[in-house]
Amino acid sequence: MKKDYCGLFGIYGHPEAARMTYFGLYSMQHRGQESAGIVTWDGETIREQKGMGLVADVFNERHLAKELKGDIALGHVRYSTTGASLIKNAQPFVVHFGGLRLAIAHNGNLVNTKELRDELEAQGSIFQTTMDSEIFVHLIAKSLNGNTIEDAVMKACKKVKGSFSLLILANDKMIAVKDPHGFRPLVLGRVGDNYVFASETCAFDLIDAESIRPIKPGEMVVVEDGNLSSYIYDDKTPKRQCIFELIYFARPDSIIFDEVVYERRKKMGQVLAKEMPMDVDFVMPFPDSGNYAAVGYSQESGLPLELAMIRNHYVGRTFIQPSQDMRDFSVKMKLNPVRSMIKGKRIMIIEDSIVRGTTIRARVKELRALGAREIHMRVSCPAIRFPCYYGIDFSSKGELIAANSTEEEIARFIGLDSLHYLSIDGLLESVEDKDSYCLACFNGDYPIPPCAGSGKMCLEDKC
C-alpha cells in the first residue's frame, strides 16, 4: 500500500492556540500516523509535546490546557519519507540558537539531502536526527549572521532541491514557505482576527476558519504582531504540483491547489468509464480509496453502484498482528464483503491506484472464493512506473508492479478478467489546471532530477 506523508498546521495569536492546533492535526490524521507534535510560544518560552502514534494518543487535556501555553502554535503529523520512524525524528523540530527559539515543520522531501548534510558536517554542523528537515535548521542558522530570519529562510530555500512546504516558528514570528515548484499543498486562512495555516482546507472546516488562498510556489508568508507580509523568492520556476494529492492523499472534502478534491476524483471515474466501458452487473469500490471515482464511473456508465465491501473503521495501528499462518487475516480485518452480493455476479472494481498489487490480489482472491463470475478492475490514475523522490513512499522501481510488468501480466497476477488504467491524457482531462502538475511517477519526467543517494533511509548510516 501507499503511505501518506505529513500534515502541517499553524495558528497565530489565538488564546486557545494549542487546542486549535490539536483539532487541526486531528482533521489531517490521514496525512501521517507515525508521530504527532505541537510547539507553542508565549512570548518568552517555547514549549513542545511530541510522541509516536495518533494525535488522540499523543495529547491529553493536561497538555492542551496547562502545559502548551501561548497564543502561537505549530503542529505536525508525520509519515516518514526520509528518516526512520523514531521519536527523535518526530516534528516540529526545535532548536535554540543564541536568542532565537526556532521550530520547524516540513511536508515534502529533499533530493540533495546527503550532499547538503555532508557539506554541513564538513563545516562543523552536528545533526541530531536523520530527517532531511533538519537540514533547513542548519542552513538557516548559518545564514543568520547579520541577516534577518526572513533573509536566512529564503537563502536556505534557494540552497535545497526538492519538495517542501514549511511552517517555521521563530520566537514571535510564524513563517510559511513553499518550494518554487509548489509540490506540496499549504493554505492560508483566518479564524476571527487570527491567521492560520494548514496542509488541507478540511482543517479549517473543523475550527470554523475561513480559507483565504493557497500559499504560492516560491512564496514566503510572515506573520508578526498579527500582521501578514508576503515575499516571492522565486517566480521563474514552472509549477509542478503533486497530482497524487487529488488522486489519493487529500481528504475528499478538501480544496487542494484550488481544486475541489471530491469533484476531481469523480471526474476521473467519469473519464475512466468513457475510456474503457464494460458490461457488468454492478460497480463497486474498495473503500475508502475508490469511492469517489466509483461514483463517477457509475454515473457516466449508467451501471448501478453497490457498496459490496464493508470497511471496519475501528481497526487501529495497535491491532494485534496475525500469525504467519493467518497472513490473509490482515486483509479481512479491514474489509469484508457482503456475500450475497458476490456469488454469480460480474463485478467492476474501481481503485484509485495500484502500487505493489499484493493487497488487491488478496481481496480479489476472496471475491473469487465467494463465487464471483467475472472480476474486472478500472484504476482512476495511470500506471505508476517510476519512483517518487518528492515525498511519496515508493522510492524504488522494485516496489512498483507496473514498472516491471505489462497490464496483462498485472491482471493475471491480481486474478482479474480485465484491467485498465486511466490514461495520462484522461487524468489531465479530469483536472482544471492541466499544465501545473507533476506526472513523474507516471512518465518519468522529473522536474528536479534526483541526486545520488536519494531515498527514505539515505541518512540512516549516519546515526
UniProtKB/TrEMBL annotation:
Gene3D superfamilies: 3.40.50.2020, Glutamine Phosphoribosylpyrophosphate, subunit 1, domain 1 (3.60.20.10)
One Pfam family hit: GATase_7
Protein family: In the C-terminal section; belongs to the purine/pyrimidine phosphoribosyltransferase family.
Record keywords: 4Fe-4S, Glutamine amidotransferase, Glycosyltransferase, Iron, Iron-sulfur, Metal-binding, Purine biosynthesis, Transferase
Cofactor: [4Fe-4S] cluster
Catalytic activity: 5-phospho-beta-D-ribosylamine + L-glutamate + diphosphate = 5-phospho-alpha-D-ribose 1-diphosphate + L-glutamine + H2O
Native species: Desulfovibrio gilichinskyi
Domain (Glutamine amidotransferase type-2): residue spans on this chain: 6-226
Residue stretches spanning the membrane: none
Gene name, Swiss-Prot/TrEMBL: purF
Protein's name according to its UniProt entry: Amidophosphoribosyltransferase
